[in-house]
Amino acid sequence: MATIQNISRRDFLKTTGTAGALVIGANFVPGGLVKEAQAQAVASPNLFVSIAGDGVVTITCSRAEMGQGARTGIPMILADELEADWDRCTLWQAPGDETKYDPAGKDGQNTDGSRSTRHHLDVMRQLGGAARKTLELAAARKWGVSSGDVYARHHRVYNSRTGKSFDYGELVDVAAGIKLPEGDIPFKDKSQWKYIGKDMPGVDNFDITTGGANFGADISIPGMKIAVIERSPVFRGKVKSYDASAALKVPGVEKVVQIPHLPDDKPQEFRAMGGIAVIGTNTWSVMEGRKKLKIKWDSGPNRVHSSRTYDNKLRKSAKKGGVVVRNRGNFDRAIKGASKVVEADYFVPYFIHTPMEPPAAIVDANARPVKVWACTQSPNETRQYVSEALGLKKTDIECWQTLLGGGFGRKSKPDYVCEAAILSKMVGAPVRVQWTREDDIQQGYYHTASAHTMKAGLDSSGKVVAWKHSGSWPSILALWNPAQKTGFGIEYGLGMVDAPYNSVPNIRIENGEADAHIRVGWYRSVNNIQHSFAQNCFAYELAAAAGRDPLEMLLEMIGDADNMDLAKDGVKEYWNYGDPVEDWPVMPVRLSNALRTVAKKAGYGKKLPKGHGLGLAVHRSFHSYVATAVHVVVHDDGTFSIPQVDTAIDCGRYVNPEGVLKQVEGAAIYGNTIARYGKITTNRGAVQQSNFHDYPVSRISNSPLNVRVHIVEDFVHLRPCGVGEPGVPPYTPALINAIYEATGKRIHTLPIGDKV
Amino acid sequence: MISLRVNGVSRQFNGDPRMPLLWYLRDELGLTGSKFGCGSGLCGACTVHLDGGAVRGCITSVEMAANKNVTTIEGLDANGNHPVQRAWRAHNVPQCGYCQAGQIMQAASLLNQNPDPSDKEIVDGMAGNICRCGTYQRIFAAVRSAATEV
Ligand code: FES
Ligand code: FES
Cβ B135–A226 below 8 Å, yes or no? Predict the structure, then answer.
């Protein structure tokens, strides 16, 4: 158990103008107990590097670790440019403070959107380079030589005239007094990279394999109470009345209190939902106590939300269409002139993140600053919402991130932290709020349900001349504007308006209306999942209608242009994952290249035995270009197994190849859950699933265990792209296309289940 | 009063005998290596050994552990060097790591009972443990290579 105590990090902060500052709770992420910061740092060239007299380099990590490898990959970049010896580096996990720990200035430390590497490659190199230069100047001063006569190499600075050298630790006293001259420090040449581009195992592996790694619920502070909360089964329902007498009789239960529901005019966003909290001395007691609560709920207007009827509304809306979000050429005219017209409808239900670690947060709201420890992806939004919940300023809140037992987008929404804050204030003690799996499944921020109507025209040679996609779904934006009926730019930008069929002369993309009755939120890969599913499956249907090979058809539709200009097709303010299109253009050539690569690696075109099928899909998301080939075997009883998956990923410049492999391997398993099982349904507003028995996820027994990842090197000179999410979208359509190849059966509705 | 041994240390427990071992370990003893994933025996995150065999700590009461030896991830090997732990690091298995204590305890028990498992026996033996990050192929490879050592 980690116990948090005051520790002094004054030396670390010496050169930052906050000398003597007391910082709470450093170093609790790795290694069990909170310790005094071991390294007596005496040189801190910047907030991201400190070097101790024994030469140990402490690198600041200000990205959340949720399994995606940020605590390994991002510090690797800095260590490389610093010429540090990785084995003599340790990490310090920064608290939430975007004024200090968001060096790229792009996302306020919100680890989300597959952007850690792409936004931090350059700035981490700058920070490492500045620290290296400081040490070089310190050595030059010690020897009394010019800076041109020294160079750093593997944790030492050398005198190029004499061959003498200093260990970094021997330079800290002088380095502490060095002021770097103005101007950019030149980066190391790529040929000199020692870590970037090389495999590195996870920095937390030892702690993880020995039980010493700390996640959200592993932090305890003196006097802390534990709470679980019963929330309305229906979104925005309210407590009419409750009886806690039986709950209070459970030994270990100390208090039952009500968290007030939000006022009707306050949008949900990431605020606490309200409910009845059972508070006590240990987790089991409060969970048992919660079972004994008697609560009468007023379900409110969202009781109309039943999947049985709601799904059909979405389907109708998709058929009808609505706002035109991309328009190239003249679809209506082209479809009239087509020799063949194909139409198909696709449907994807809600699903939920189920990170292995259910949300948990510890807050001491009675201290100043307020102390927060949480498995959060976004410590500064956490501070913002917690401060609102407590009626304080954001600067009154201190937020420390633990390791996250999976995030997948769930933990960028700090409602659970707000709950702990409100309860801590109410009971006058620190409180840990523990979510159960049932809470996680029934009270989540759901991946939106969506319906898609696809229509296309082929000319007499079997070429696609017209393409239309019309989709409907309740929008994420409804969290802020409950009356929201259409999607918005970010959702359109998630693989919808940027559908990559650049050689098709007439394209029309529309969005129909839908009401939101539940918390809709982002989920690993977000709307790319359904867009990639509908597009890639429909492309296969077109190939069949034309009697053509689907690979050839896809390559023809995508083409080999090195830029697809969406502005020309009337796309207003293409989101492009928040990045300029000049820096990260949409490049059909990279999609085609990834697709050709995977087809070759997977042996596409080989004759397969009966019941076997190889299916392809390709999708750009988070700027990365990913193509997947799934090899499926459908058995006589309809069950299926997946002997091999090949995925080619072009993510531009990458840092840790081993990290890329793991993310893409994991994405296949994540996709396998979506394809086989992902389905949340509601009845009268309440979610019907509750735990892994009725909301199953992929297990080792039904997962592909031979996922081969091929990193495409052809565009490695270009900027880094995303890696955590882009592997997910092509998996499901590739599997479904494989099932079609094996059986001739078309699947239009997810999930597939265990039998086809 | 219930007596049991946890990682070799004798313990007395005076609380509700129905309390699941998982919460006794985490909340009372501060052994937080065992994780809470579902509370219903469905995910394996809470896996510990009872007299050497894997059990789910969330559905095994302290009472059921009376006079028995409980081993948690913290006690699997004094230096964290059980062959399964070493294989896990050699194969760079963990992503977020949350499921991994349970996976390792399950694998250690599997190999203890069956030092030379077939592919199918590995898959069957590990099928009760969920990993949402999807590290199954590395888990499979790590169990396979640890099997040559135990
Ligand atoms: S927490 Fe015990 S099996 Fe899931
Ligand atoms: S490593 Fe994250 S759940 Fe298994």
Answer: no
For chains A and B, count residue pairs whose Cβ atoms are closer than 8 Å.
195
Which residue lies with its CA nearest to atom 4 of ligand 2?
A: B131
ipTM: 0.99
Closest in B20, B30, B97 to A284, CB measured = B20
Listed as ranges, residues in chain B with pLDDT below 50 are none
CATH of segment(s) A307-351+445-743? 3.30.365.10
pLDDT tens column, A165-198: 999 999 999 998 998 888 889 999 999 999 999 9
Omega of the bond leading into A751 within 30 degrees of 0 (cis) = yes
Name every chain A residue with its beta carbon within 8 A of the beta carbon of B98: 215, 355-357, 403, 405-406
pLDDT at A42: 62
With tokens 């956490």, the residue in question is: A382
Give how far Cα A75 sits from Cα of A46, A172, A381, A530, Å: 14, 20, 23, 34
B37 vs A669: CB contact, 8 Å cut-off?
Answer: no
- A216-301+359-434 has which fold? Aldehyde Oxidoreductase; domain 4 (3.30.365)
Note the pLDDT tens digit of each residue in A37-46: 333 446 888 8
Domains for chain B: give ranges and CATH numbers. 2-75 (3.10.20.30), 83-147 (1.10.150.120)
Give the span between the Cα atoms of A136 and A145, in whole angstroms.
11
- Chain A positions in Cβ-Cβ contact with residue B36 (cut-off 8 Å): 217, 283, 358, 434
Amino acid code (one letter) for A707 = V
Query: What is the pLDDT of chain A when averaged over all its residues?
Result: 94
Ligand that comes closest to the CA of residue B55:
1
CA B39 to ligand 1 centroid distance, Å:
5
Pick the CATH number of A2-210 from 3.30.365.10, 3.90.440.10, 3.40.1170.60, 2.170.150.40: 3.30.365.10
DSSP assignments along A132-201, one per residue: HHHHHHHHHHHHT--GGGEEEETTEEEETTT--EEEGGGGHHHHTT--PPSSPPPPPPGGG-SSTTS---
Helix, strand, coil percentages for chain A (3-state, nearest 5): 30, 25, 45
Q: Could you tell me where in chain A the CATH 3.30.365.10 domains are found?
A: 2-210, 216-301+359-434, 307-351+445-743
- All residues of chain A having their beta carbon less than 8 Å from the beta carbon of residue B105 are none
